[in-house]
Each structure stands twice: as structure tokens, then as C-alpha cells.
From TrEMBL:
<dbReference type="InterPro" id="IPR000182">
    <property type="entry name" value="GNAT_dom"/>
</dbReference>
<dbReference type="Pfam" id="PF00583">
    <property type="entry name" value="Acetyltransf_1"/>
</dbReference>
<dbReference type="InterPro" id="IPR016181">
    <property type="entry name" value="Acyl_CoA_acyltransferase"/>
</dbReference>
<dbReference type="GO" id="GO:0016747">
    <property type="term" value="F:acyltransferase activity, transferring groups other than amino-acyl groups"/>
</dbReference>
<dbReference type="InterPro" id="IPR051822">
    <property type="entry name" value="Glycosyl_Hydrolase_84"/>
</dbReference>
<protein>
    <submittedName>
        <fullName>Acyl-CoA N-acyltransferase</fullName>
    </submittedName>
</protein>
<feature type="domain" description="N-acetyltransferase">
    <location>
        <begin position="3"/>
        <end position="200"/>
    </location>
</feature>
<dbReference type="GO" id="GO:0016231">
    <property type="term" value="F:beta-N-acetylglucosaminidase activity"/>
</dbReference>
<dbReference type="GO" id="GO:0009100">
    <property type="term" value="P:glycoprotein metabolic process"/>
</dbReference>
Length: 200
């Protein structure tokens, strides 16, 4: 296995969407939950290679024809990201994905979300304006790649004069929580329990 970590690009969007779907059910595949398998990625992955204030890194497997097998993406300014997305990203998706089209509950939840997208808790913004998402295909997990991508992210964020980053996680995903705790993430004071952050 030969893995390369590089900066994410807009052309990675289809790969990010696929990885997001394959890990969207608390770390397991959500394929069976969706008729519209692109929906998780349109919230948690694809915007981060298309909208302003975003950044990211991807893992590429040389031996699988340079396939993207993991990613870490985020925004350096969460409130600016939310404002831009509210004006330019979510409305287009809301127009395209009408809840009346949904036959599965998971699809309906995302389609409703496009019409009423949540915003980050103030406590998280107080902790850091930057947030992130990380997803790695199961066969590449527990091999140190998440830690290496995080190291790349930390160096980038330091270069942006940022001193921390936070994330939200699915409370059912105990494996992810264990990983975050192991690399130094702790609960963000004043935020809901599923928010964790790390200071550099």
C-alpha cells in the first residue's frame, strides 16, 4: 500500500461524496438508507472543495490507480462558510431535492435539512472559527493515516494564524470518538456533547 496525502481539489468532489456515503451511518455504509446516495456528501464533504473559506486534504492510494480513499476537509471561518452556503449552496439543493421525492426517511431528513440547515453552536465558534470533517474508508482505518492527515491540517491552520479546530461527531460512532480522544480532542465547553476540539 502506497498512500500519498495531498491537498483536496474540486475534481475530488465525486470521490469525497462516495467516501461520505460509505461512512455516513456512524462510520458504516449508508448505501441502503438512501435512494439519493449523494445527499450526505452534499452536506459534509462536497461544499469543502467548492465554497470559499474551505480547505482540505485527501489520501490517495497509488496502488488503486490514485483512488481517493480518505479525506479531511473544513473551513477556516465557520460563520462565513455558513453565510455563503445559506445564500449560494443550500437554496440550489433545496430547489433540486424536494422532500416529496423522498421514499426513505434518511433522504427526507437531508432534503428537509437543505431548507433549514443548522448552524454551529456559539461555544464552538468561541473555541475556534475553524471546523473540520474527516472520513477514511474502513480498510484504511487504524493505520495512522488519520493522525497524519490531522498533522497536515494543523500545519495549514497554524499558517492561517489559527490556534484550534473543532468538529461535530455522530454520538453513535464510538470508534471515531476514541480516535479523536487519542489524538488530543476534548469536549468543547458549553457546546453539545457531540462537539470536540483541539488546541495547537
Amino acid at each position: 500500500m502506497t498512500i500519498i496525502i495531498r491537498k483536496a481539489m474540486e475534481t475530488d468532489a465525486p470521490a469525497l461524496s462516495r467516501i461520505c456515503l460509505l461512512t455516513a451511518d456512524a462510520g458504516s455504509t449508508a448505501e441502503a438508507l438512501h435512494d439519493y446516495g449523494e445527499l450526505p456528501g452534499l452536506v459534509y464533504a462536497v461544499p469543502y472543495v467548492k465554497l470559499p473559506t474551505t480547505w482540505g486534504y485527501v489520501m490517495v492510494d497509488d496502488l488503486r490507480d490514485n483512488e481517493v480513499v480518505g479525506y479531511l476537509v473544513g473551513s477556516t471561518d465557520t460563520r462565513a462558510f455558513e453565510t455563503y452556503a445559506a445564500e449560494h449552496w443550500w437554496p440550489k439543493l433545496a430547489e433540486r431535492y424536494l422532500p416529496s421525492l423522498a421514499k426513505k426517511p434518511a433522504d427526507e431528513r437531508y432534503m428537509d435539512l437543505f431548507r433549514n440547515m443548522y448552524t454551529a453552536p456559539d461555544a464552538c465558534i468561541d473555541f475556534s472559527p475553524a471546523h473540520m470533517h474527516i472520513n477514511i474508508l474502513p480498510e484504511y482505518q487504524k493505520q495512522g493515516w488519520g493522525r497524519k492527515m490531522l498533522a497536515s491540517a494543523v500545519e495549514f491552520l497554524k499558517g492561517q494564524d489559527l490556534s484550534g479546530v473543532w468538529l461535530g461527531l455522530d454520538p453513535r460512532n464510538n470508534g471515531a470518538k476514541t480516535f479523536y480522544e487519542r489524538v488530543g480532542f476534548t469536549h468543547v465547553d458549553g457546546a453539545p456533547d457531540n462537539n470536540m476540539g483541539i488546541k495547537f
